[in-house]
Amino acid sequence: MTWHPTRTAALQRLEQFLPRSGRAYAERRNHDSGPGARPEVSGLSPYIRYRMIAESDVLAAVTSRHSQAAAEKFIQEVCWRTYWKGWLEQRPDVWRHYCRDVQTIERPPGYAAAVEGRTGIDCFDAWAQELVETGYLHNHARMWFASIWVFTLKLPWQLGADWFLRHLLDGDPASNTLSWRWVAGLQTVGKTYLARADNIERYTQGRFQPQGLASVAVPLPADPPVAMRPLPLQAPLPTGPVALLVTEEDLSPELTADRIAVLDQPVERGAAPLVTRFIAGALDDAATRLGATTGRPVERVAIADIAAWANGLPIVSAYAPVGPAQSAVFGPQIHWQRRAWDSAAWPHAKRGFFQFREQIASLLRDAGIGPRQPTLFETR
Ligand SMILES: Cc1cc2nc3c(=O)[nH]c(=O)nc-3n(C[C@H](O)[C@H](O)[C@H](O)COP(=O)(O)OP(=O)(O)OC[C@H]3O[C@@H](n4cnc5c(N)ncnc54)[C@H](O)[C@@H]3O)c2cc1C
């Protein structure tokens, strides 16, 4: 798979995947047939990550094609993302502590061999190489990789998460950090994920027969609990002329404005060149699209020049969730707007995914997402 950083490419990928997003996805999604064509999964994550296409767009498309029962698994996977975002948003200290640890933990012996794919564990080395070359790993490979990192190689999970975050095209503070924590037994306390050789062999169609994997996965010592905070309250948008600032956190903002600017480059977070190029292309695409849809000139602005660019106009922006862009760009001068989907769903991400899952049907219904209603003509 390759990813062209445009919304047009995102929509094409969604359309091509739709026929396979129902029962076929539920049956085949755990199979990793290797780099190249991956018909089992959508490959939409780099587009969803930067909201070149929103979760609600994807869910609407899928439920217009399949019944909710047939597409249940795919809907749930998309909702895992929503859940992780909402969970971290209410516990920003988990992100802060992780960032602090990445800065302070020394790279132990074994770190270089792991990220350079020189451990001698066939699958692990192949995935390390695949990630660096393509910016993507299948979900099952991510789980196996993280598990081998933590329980076989006994490397600190934070360093593995950091390496993923910098190399994944879809690298996301919430989905990545919390998935690593989940594998390590820190997220669902006491529950770990153990990578087993027979499982890897089976779901990679025999491409790998790893040797020497850990046979137990003892949860890492639990972190001290962090305080939960209420979701940041959204203030009404200013009335009168406003300036819209577009960041990489939402490249299809549902806002209009008198002046529009897109950040001139990706927010610095030590990402690999492949990732930085993808985001830079996605920012260019957003500028071109917004120019075409609004008929207004779209400027490019550096973070340091935002206030000068707005020239006294109130600045509005789509909400940037917990992560580098929020820290670098957002302050009291920005009037942010959260998407309706996030505002409805995130408050339910207080506990485990299974409680969140109970809400999915009503979230979809309230968002007007669901099977097309038959028209009067069709019902006769
Ligand atoms: C250790 C680890 C790290 C991960 N890091 C990231 C990350 O940085 N960014 C990221 O977007 N996902 C991450 N994931 C989740 C998942 O692996 C990817 O979203 C998925 O593999 C993307 O491929 P796809 O678009 O083909 O997925 P599909 O299977 O086609 O799923 C459709 C969409 O649902 C969402 N999704 C699917 N599975 C998950 C999941 N388990 N958690 C959250 N969202 C999911 C994604 O937006 C994805 O595009 C991680 C998982 C693990 C185990």
> Count of helical segments?
19
Ligands? flavin-adenine dinucleotide
CATH architecture of the domain at 102-221: Orthogonal Bundle
Radius of gyration equals 21 Å
**Low-pLDDT regions:** none
Structural class by sheet pairing and helices? mainly alpha
Classified by CATH, the class of the domain at 102-221 is Mainly Alpha
Beta-strand proportion: 5-15%
Report on this model:
The chain has 380 residues and is mainly alpha-helical. Among the domains are: 102-221, DNA Cyclobutane Dipyrimidine Photolyase, subunit A, domain 3 (Orthogonal Bundle); 243-339, no CATH class. Helix content is 48%, strand content 6%. The chain has 19 helices and five strands. The protein has helices at residues 7-17, 23-28, 45-49, 55-65, 72-89, 92-104, 111-115, 122-134, 139-152, 157-167, 173-184, 197-203, 273-294, 306-310, 324-329, 340-345, 353-357, 360-366, 376-379, and strands at residues 243-246, 259-263, 298-301, 315-318, 334-337. Strands 3-2-1-4-5 form a five-stranded parallel beta sheet. Strand 2 (259-263), helix 13 and strand 3 (298-301) form a beta-alpha-beta unit. Flavin-adenine dinucleotide is lined by residues 29, 41-45, 48-49, 77-78, 80-81, 84, 138-139, 142-143, 146, 164, 168, 170-172, 175-176, 179-180, 183.
